Amino acid sequence: MVYPALMRQYGLLFVMLGLPVVIYLLYVNTAENRYQSLPIFGPRKVLPTAVADGKTHPDDTLFYELPGVTSWSAGSINPVHIVHLVRYDGAAQRKRLRTAQASRVQDVFKKNPLVHQYCLGIHSGVEVGPRDGALWSPLMPLEQVLDSAAKAQLWQDLRVFTPDWQQIFRQIPQEDLTLLVDRRGRVRGFYRGVLKDQTDRLMEDTRTLIAEYANTPNRRRRRL
């Protein structure tokens, strides 16, 4: 009979067209769960209720955001900020170590437009200029994009994270720190920028944050 032959042909065609779709859906479903979301540091506030899309949802959490970061990166889409806290008048050996590790990050992510590296000069009793930051190539000095008032405010904002990084790294100077900051200005990681293993972890966490962007919409919440 003709009908069984046609049914076999249509069945085979269905399998040939449908199987790739099923495999793709399974891949997407598993790929979305292959990463573990990074922690969010800083003070937070849990609200009893919050309204989203016209509906009330319980237990909305507001995380602390760095307004200075979000203001200078307003034109970027889903940026990942790596901010190295440095002392421009520090020891030459420490400068070489920080620059070497920052160069490793630069080489890995040089073709990724989401990743931006900066250095931010520690207050040392004197005002620091953009040319001082040029010593830390390939890092871009934040002094080139922040005025004095914005820089002072950013340093004030960074103080709220002192309990977090001191719990992770005990008895190290603040200028050893590197921060991973997400698109909302939230700090997602602390690292010692002079150490190779810490830089390896920074790069792995940067990839995780990029994966998080791919699986979550960019929804702005109220700032704490």
Helix content: 40-55%
Rg calc: 23 Å
The name of the CATH topology of the largest domain is: Glutaredoxin
Number of strands: 7
User: Can you summarize the main beta sheet?
Assistant: 5 strands, mixed
Strand order of the largest sheet: 5-4-3-6-7
CATH class of the largest domain: Alpha Beta
How much strand? 15-25%
Structure report:
The protein is α/β, with parallel strands linked by helices and 224 residues long. It is built from 7 helices and 7 strands. The chain has helices at 2-31, 67-72, 92-109, 130-133, 148-158, 162-168, 196-215; strands at 44-52, 55-63, 80-86, 115-121, 140-141, 177-181, 187-192. The termini are far apart.
Task: Give a quick summary of the entry.
This protein is α/β, with parallel strands linked by helices and 224 residues long. 43% of the residues lie in helices and 20% in strands.
What is the secondary structure topology, with strand pairs?
Layout: H1 2-31, E1 44-52, E2 55-63, H2 67-72, E3 80-86, H3 92-109, E4 115-121, H4 130-133, E5 140-141, H5 148-158, H6 162-168, E6 177-181, E7 187-192, H7 196-215
Parallel strand pairs: 3-4, 4-5
Antiparallel strand pairs: 1-2, 3-6, 6-7
